[in-house]
């Protein structure tokens, strides 16, 4: 297991986290911060056990990260300030700049922060699921898109440079919340903001549990305890994991999809990458995006500290998230992981049809 809860120390009120890289490096995070993720626990709590624990606990089932326990019922935290700039706001921009589309989540800050002030870039932000359409319509020339969308619908888009949002183990903010054991999940209400996460859930349940999931659209902002009572399992991503809808405390099991992918394949998982449908722009855009990424990664801890209070994240947790959980450079192992995912995903599209949309 790449990132797991190792021990709970009530007297110290902290939980130790270890990235299993063979070097024994670990970080301690105050337990009150982890409470937002349901990692509150009680007496006798341990991590790394291959056997299920009783009561409120964590367990490592064959390498996957599964967390049992209540989650906080907070909601309504905003996205990064200024992140809702759209195309209309940039209509008068210099036509010689590169129009770049990006997401508004905390996890994109190391890739995008320096682009905000780059004179060669006009930055437009949207949720991940909107960016592929913006790229197809020519509203942006390069976009940070879910990797599954680079090949869907007979596309053959070009990956631009090596910037990405990836994990090599637990991701913290892409999770399935379930009322039943993972092997028994058949119907999954999904947060459609990330196409890659929906496709990943479908792949994992098919490959690990031999289950063909039925996916149903889920709008976390509209969820109530009553509508959640009808859900067997729910996929949440991003800030919605830190700020879960009211009623999520009824879901006893959490499955981190990044950790489950790592246990299944031994490879990192790439959620999003810079892509274009105009290969001619790659030579110009790639160095700009790489320089912005290098500058952002170098300042990742500071960026977390600066932006966490405004979006409701505990500062220490945000710093750990950007500096330990996520990778922003696509190395060879990440490329192999991405290729493996696209191979397993195949031509099947697990995205729910718009006509199936429900308010959950």
Any chance you could write out the topology, listing elements then pairs?
Blueprint lengths: L2 E7 L4 E6 L6 E5 H4 L23 E4 L2 E5 L29 E5 L6 H4 L8 E5 L5 H6 L5 E5 L11 E10 L6 E5 L8 E5 L3 H15 L4 E5 L6 H4 L4 E5 L1 H4 L10 E4 H9 L3 E8 L5 H17 L1 H12 L3 H11 E4 L2 H14 L15
Parallel strand pairs: 6-7, 6-8, 11-12, 11-13
Antiparallel strand pairs: 1-2, 2-3, 4-5, 5-14, 8-15, 9-15, 9-16, 10-13, 10-14
Helix pairs in contact: 4-7, 9-10
Folded structure, characterized:
- This protein is an alpha+beta fold and 360 residues long.
- It has one domain (73-360): Periplasmic binding protein-like II (D-Maltodextrin-Binding Protein, domain 2), CATH 3.40.190.10.
- The chain is built from 11 helices and 16 strands.
- It has helices at 31-34, 109-112, 131-136, 195-209, 225-228, 239-242, 257-265, 282-298, 300-311, 315-325, 332-345, and strands at 3-9, 14-19, 26-30, 58-61, 64-68, 98-102, 121-125, 142-146, 158-167, 174-178, 187-191, 214-218, 233-237, 253-256, 269-276, 326-329.
- The strands form 3 sheets. A 7-stranded mixed beta sheet has the order 4-5-14-10-13-11-12.
- The radius of gyration is 20 Å and the shape is globular.
- Residues 1-92 and 352-360 have low confidence and may be disordered.
